[in-house]
Amino acid sequence: MRPYLAMIKIDILLASRDRSVIFFNYLFPLIFFFVFSEMMGASRSGGVSNVVTMVLTIGILGNGLWGAGMRAVQEREQNILRRFKVTPISPAPILAASMVTGWLIYIPAVLLICALAHFIYGMAIPERPFSLLGLITLGVFAFRSIGLILASVVNSAQESTIAIQLLYMPMLFLSGATFPVTMLPGWAQVVGQFLPATYLVTGFQSVFLRREALGQNLPAVAALLLTMALALFISIQIFRWEKEEELRPSARLWLLAVLSPFVVMGAYQAYSHDQKKKAELLWRDLMRSDTFVIQGAKIFTGTGKVIESGAVLVKNGKIERVYEDASPDFGKGKIEAAPAEGK
Length: 343
Description:
13 helices, alpha+beta, 65% helix
């Protein structure tokens, strides 16, 4: 246990001194958060939870693929790992420290994003905070393990950049992290079902919109856990201390083995369409959770009264208020609402 704790302490100190770590874990997500918030109307009740889902997913992808993968290659290229080789330590503590450090660095960013969403845009505090934390933890560990296996099978920083981009870009655009899955063409939705990030997005939306527990997303949870275990095990077996230790090109097939749980998941989902149906339900819930006003409407109330030109405030799929004024001034709060029952 002492080697693990020592490596975690060293890794945290090194990460805290790296300005790029601070930028990509804190400032970069904040940029996405405010840009997406303004573009997608986060001030409305449903929009902010979708923005948080997108930002958390993008942050986990960056933390795992770039934070773990690229950094591991750079440490090997700069002969940092060679110094550990002469000490009585195995690859396992080094890889485990990378996983734990990535999680410890990312959690404050999650708290910051959720706090801003709550206090600025009015997002409700998640009813399943432990499910949310569990999903974030699982996502960080799974994607950092994928980043580490990428670092293990490439021979240079240039190769790692190409390999990371080949995984990062499809997951960024086809998983729902930037565009809603339901808006993608049919072929893109099928491809997205083979990508790990798709299940992360669906999991976050399920927690925020449907108050689901982690146990209600067992297939995705099992696939992420299996991917993490496979990637860590294989990374330990093919770990390289020095850049001169090159692997055969066939070693890249290990990456396919690591992603095999999602190949199986994608094949099943392409057949059953369960994931597609759930994505459509979540999108419908998101749209219903929006807040909007219908103005200039002729309103028939349950009491028999008819408002010739009024306004209706709809929130979370339900009529919140009925206004007798066609253009109520919501900012001043002077409009008296007629009863919403029976409309």
